[in-house]
Design a protein that fits this description.
By secondary structure, the protein is of the alpha/beta class. It contains 15 helices and 15 strands.
Length: about 500
């Protein structure tokens, strides 16, 4: 089956076509399935196929459409990150001992997607424990970037980003604590939205075999991915809203509308670099071009502000708090090794590596002090967003890098304009929104000189997710968005 007019459509376009009877849900599902069967031997994005149930859901969607039913995702094919519980399918998080774990119930977000009429075709690949900006494990193998098979698609939602770029349906679900939505979107030239913390409940998105109970995992969120900015809002409206097990009743949270409807009204702070982790020249140039385009369109563009929290200080805080959470789940022998190493640290060592090590073994007293610092940080951001509507900044310092599966991430490096930096230091830019729990929308800015995607993130105010989402839509409309990978544009 060759590429059809539906292979790279958006969910909004597909939904309109379904209502107009220009295409059926079964045809959309078969188009995506055909692309998976034709291309995924090279990309390896779909680690668990669920075509039979997906086609049955598509047939049911067609019947519902014939009855005149209207649901947000009715008949739209999509994929979901392997880390979500889907009843009857394996949920492993890449852990070999859990390869046969099959939950009996859907995650809450999956239930909401199905209730909205979504047609789930399969699950997408992840790194072990969702702990890398690459997507490989011993159960499902390695996922490759559709723009260059020798490069990472990003992680931990790398399979989802690669699936979107390759045309395996217009939507996917991912998750994010260290950039796991935004980084793969950046590396695969698609869109993603990290919601305000706890806006979308994550029940049923947790390592196996833990029970699916309501629990906010510090800084971790679930969120939508798509090939179009407008599609992000479509999915966010489906999965957002309190967990009824916690709220007592099932209801949806009414988010405030976007602050503005046109580019000319937006007040944007543009941050293109910082000594903590300077992005390479190509990314800085792309941000500069976007800033110029926004200014020409009438937006108020500012390059510096004393209101912006100190990036070095907040990055160190983020490293400590992130690892204090992640370190809780380390194996005893790994934790003991971290304790021994942390005890040898000099108090004067303020490197990001040292802060990560301190975070793993931090005391509760130290964590409470850090939590107080985070509260002050949130207050700083609230003050900033009195003067600005959005902050545009990098997601990662370089485009997709070559596969590097060396076992110790702290010993890996990333080369930025000829200088090596510690691989985990790349947490810095995703952390700008993660630590204070702010919404952030990842958008593509086209392809770089090497044919790899580049992009930025738009950080918005607390609970004002619709503001960065709207700005993303306007930028896509005015300046372009997703560009299909040439080797899979067929």
């Amino acid at each position: 089956m060759a590429k059809s007019q539906w292979s790279f459509n958006t969910a909004v376009e597909a939904s309109a076509a379904l209502r107009a009877k220009k295409v059926s849900a079964v045809e959309l599902a078969n188009d995506a399935i055909g692309r998976i069967e034709r291309h995924d031997g090279k990309i390896n994005a779909i680690c668990v196929r669920d075509f039979e149930r997906g086609l049955q859901a598509a047939r049911e969607a067609d019947a519902a459409l014939a009855r005149g039913e209207q649901k947000p995702l009715l008949g739209i094919p999509l994929t979901v990150k392997e880390s979500y519980n889907v009843a009857g399918l394996p949920t492993t998080w890449g852990f070999v001992p859990q390869k046969n774990y099959r939950p009996a119930e859907d995650a809450l977000a999956i239930s909401r997607v199905k209730e909205a009429g979504g047609v789930i075709l399969g699950k997408t690949n992840v790194p072990v424990g969702l702990g890398d900006w690459q997507s490989y494990n011993d159960i499902y193998g390695t996922t490759n970037n559709p723009y260059n098979l020798g490069r990472t698609p990003g992680g931990s939602s790398g399979g989802s980003a690669a699936a979107l770029a390759a045309g395996y349906g217009p939507l996917s679900l991912g998750s994010d604590i260290g950039g796991s939505l935004r980084v793969p979107a950046f590396h695969c030239g698609v869109y993603a939205h990290k919601p305000t913390f706890a806006l979308a409940p994550s029940r049923g998105h947790l390592p196996p075999p833990f029970p699916a109970i309501p629990m906010d995992r510090d800084m971790a969120v679930i969120g939508p991915m798509a090939r179009s900015a407008l599609d992000l809002s479509l999915v966010l409206d489906v999965i957002a809203g309190p967990d009824p097990l916690e709220a007592g009743i099932a209801y949806r949270l009414a988010l405030p509308g976007a602050r503005h409807a046109g580019l000319k009204d937006f007040r944007v702070l543009v941050v293109e670099t910082d000594p903590v982790l300077p992005p390479n020249k190509e990314i800085r140039d792309a941000i500069e071009k976007l800033a110029g385009n926004l200014a020409k369109a009438g937006a108020s563009v500012t390059r510096e502000s004393a209101l912006l929290p100190n990036f070095a200080e907040t990055t160190r805080l983020y490293m400590r708090m992130l690892l204090s959470f992640l370190g809780t789940f380390f194996l005893p022998e790994v934790y003991a090794g971290a304790q021994a190493a942390a005890a040898q640290l000099s108090p004067d060592d303020r490197s990001l590596a040292a802060e990560r090590l301190r975070g793993i073994t931090t005391s509760h007293r130290a964590w409470v002090l850090d939590e107080t610092a985070r509260a002050r940080l949130r207050a700083q951001w609230r003050e900033l967003f009195r003067s600005f509507d959005a902050v545009i900044c990098p997601i990662m310092p370089t485009s997709a890098f070559a596969h590097d599966h060396s076992p110790e991430q702290e010993k890996r490096s990333i080369n930025i304009d000829g200088k090596d930096y510690p691989y985990p230091d790349q947490l810095a830019w995703p952390g700008i929104a993660t630590l204070p729990g702010l919404p952030a929308t990842a958008i593509p800015l086209g392809l770089g000189g090497d044919g790899l995607p580049i992009g930025v993130q738009i950080v918005g105010p607390w609970l004002e997710d619709r503001t960065p989402l709207k700005l993303a839509e306007l930028i896509e409309r005015e300046f372009g968005g997703f560009v299909a990978p040439p080797m899979f544009d067929d």
